[in-house]
User: Fold these one by one.
Assistant:
Number 1:
Amino acid sequence: MSANEWWRCDATELARRVRQGEVTADELAAAARARIAALNPTLNAVVSLAADDPPTLDGPFGGVPFLAKDVLAVPGMPATMGSRLFAGNVPGAHVPYTSRLAESGLRCLGKTATSELGLLGSTETALAGVTRNPWGAEWSAAGSSGGSAAAVAAGLVPIAHANDGGGSIRLPAALAGLFGFKPSAGASAPASAVDNDFLRLVSEGCVSRSVRDTDAYLAATAAEPRSSVGPGRLGPLRIGVYTSSALGEEASPEGRAAVEEAAALCASLGHRVEWVEAPRIRGETAANAFFVVAGSSVRGLMELMTPMLGRPPGPAELEPFTLALVAWAWELGPEALGEARRALDVQGADLRAFLDGVDVALCPTWGGPRPALGLLAPHLPLDVLMARTRSLAGFTAGHNPAGAPSMSVPMGWTPDGLPVGCQLAAAPGRDTMLMRLAYQLEEAAPWAHRWPPDQFGENTNG
């Protein structure tokens, strides 16, 4: 296999080729670094590169090139969380999650861009600049895992770490034509030594080009060691379909068309597909609660960093949106955080009740029009960014307080070839069933042959 071919393979196939001696881990790493050097100046998906440490050849992904989102504390590598506040932060010890990654054999070559502290749904930061979507330089790669999605979509690596507090795996996957699976709450090994309300909403995972890669990755990083799910027999599922978001906003025409196409495919596979009323979630109340929790959690980080700086962090360390969000949450008063927690609990219970009434829920992955760069730039006014974030994440955010598994599958494509993700979700703990449905959909309507246009590298759509 030549250096010009490796990036067409998924991680599972590359690991097999390393085991069979068809290619070495060092050859793969060198080819990946060369591709990063060629394409990253345009994409700006990778924000730091690691030292050339010896590979681990054990585990399901022995010797496979990999990138970690820059919120993950990988020992010996910068962990800035997309913020100037943490520039120069280099963790020295593993957390359980990074230990599992090391044991899986993935070779971490560097870190990918994220929005500041994972707050915004587009990866545009004062620290690292703008991350571009390989499907079009004018489009956002979403956030906060936009760097990981852009890197995998462009073939810099076959798989990359991502995490999700309100859609940050699923939204970037949808906009980059990738598979993104948010597991049930608590399914993954702990990924942080810090605990706060915001982090309790976050699930760890990855973005990849194949279901089997994500399946094996989630097994390798699970809280309790387990095997991959693998394809399996599925009885007819009751699939409830809707296209109205938690805010009551109807999907864009391309989002509705993708869902209709996905619903027809599910019906052809023998599932019982029914259009249902969208889940009754108090959308704006729940969204504001998310912002209160986020602002309060960031305030805690600011207080932690104040003694180190000798002053409270300010505009030299944090973006305008972050500072405005913290101030807004603080001005709501001491009761606001408790009220926000209760609102998220209600939202989670409402969505769980809805999911208990179907086997799978099918809807668009994102709300509103396809996001262009600048739509969620962190220098915009707070009220504008909050409103646009509520709209973009109107289909995804509720699954986090519900603790429910959900996935974005690249099942829709616009007439001009842009990816449109469809979200499928299930009740908490039904991850295995949902993953098996993903395998079934991938077999019925493959997407791995679809690549971005050649302004970011070789055109592979021929």
Note: Residues 457-462 have pLDDT under 50 and may be disordered.
Number 2:
Amino acid sequence: MQKFNVDVEKVRIDKYLSEKLEYSRSIIGHMLKDGNILVNGKIVKPSFLVTIGDVVEIVKEFEKHSDVVPTKMDLEIIYEDEHIMVINKPTGVVVHPGSGNFTNTLANGLMYYTNNLSDVNGESRPGIVHRLDKDTSGLMLVAKTNKAHEILADDFKIHAIKREYIALLCGVLPHNEAKIDAPIGRDETNRKKMTVTAKNSKEAITHLKVIKRYQNNTLVSLHLETGRTHQIRVHMKYIGYPVFNDPVYGSQKIKEVGQFLHSKTIDFVHPITKESLHFENELPNFFKKYLNDLE
């Protein structure tokens, strides 16, 4: 059992302890709720403001148990240091366990590769700061420490992390540029899908720029102002030019490869070193081959 006196004034207990201990604020919140952390002998909420002289007791340390089974997987690591990783996720790979899929996810592969992963998002999502859909390929950020994770998560919230996506759309888009500002919420008729709706929705903004037009398709660059679930795919369907080969929101399909949507570039400030970083990678082979076939 740890016991120590607080040396700061008017700071939230979860923030204070996350900086003092090796636990994330979310884990500290659970420990407070379970009575495993006491302040002056009492259970307090995460929002409780500690003052100088308060006595904090760690009654019981957090016990980490993960149901994510480490699974050998070929990971394409673009960048790695002691705090973060940038990986290139292939199409067809689910990011983390859920909805009946508990093996062969990216999280399983990350657990096999290293034990040093953040647990801010819970034990089933080790290191996962943000997601890409199963059939979307490209660059993803992974956090190895809780401190890096929480800073990156805050950066995502304030849209400080910039990502460019490349997509092949069905149809020939007449406009060279477009801004799609349409709120997204859960589809009431199919809860697995998202849709543009004014009911129970959140703001969603996507910026589009045409790269090249083909006879029946348009290759575009996309930047997100917000990060809603399936945002690009829903917005492209909404404007009448769905992502090519999208199994859920699309109209044209060719074969069993993912939708033609790729996270091509990512720009962000390193959460610890504060260095400005830029990464980009090529389109997957099936995407490049199909574009060559369209020429």
Note: The longest helix spans residues 146-157.
Number 3:
Amino acid sequence: MIKAVLFDMDGVIVNTEPLHRRAYFKMFEEVNIPVTPEYYDQFTGRSTMAICENLCEAFNLKQLPNELIQIKRKHFKRLFDTEGLDLIPGVLDIIKDYHQNGLKLVLASSASMTNIERIFRRFDLDPYFVAKISGADLKASKPHPEIFLRAAALADAHTSQCIVIEDSTNGMKAAKAAGIYCIGYQGPTSENQDYTIADKVISDFKEIPFQIVSNLIKS
């Protein structure tokens, strides 16, 4: 029996991925590293720290990972504050549907807690979620399962009683490594991701109302 739904944020709840991408490429330009779009695609779903550690090692940078993080956050904040941003179509309805039917919702995102709080304040999402976890605060980044194991624990649910909704290869790998049923959301910014990992793939949240997800897993 399902007790909890564990949501990714970027690309699932809100379409911040284009802003993150632009902020990263501004950072790449500022520190003068030749990151190709193909190289960048492998970072989807990973924490900013994990990405910046990878960049420092791959390009032998003089900057420390924390310095790269600050540069990227500077550019992201400017974009976040000046450009329009919307929830993914249908996601608020599905969040309300799950909440009204007694499911515990946990946000499990690789985004920093600062960005998570920005999104939750802007769209007033706190009333629906019992907890929020930032991968930036954990030892391991997706595709490691730590974030979803912690999310299940915060929901007071066994992993067999949870469902993860993810849009990235790294996130789907993390869900499956945690032993959790995974729904892959194939959205407009989720190209180049491997959805064969997911147990179920959707392109519209209308496909997974409570009546459907309540029957996806059995205790």
Note: The chain has two domains: 4-14+85-213, 17-82.
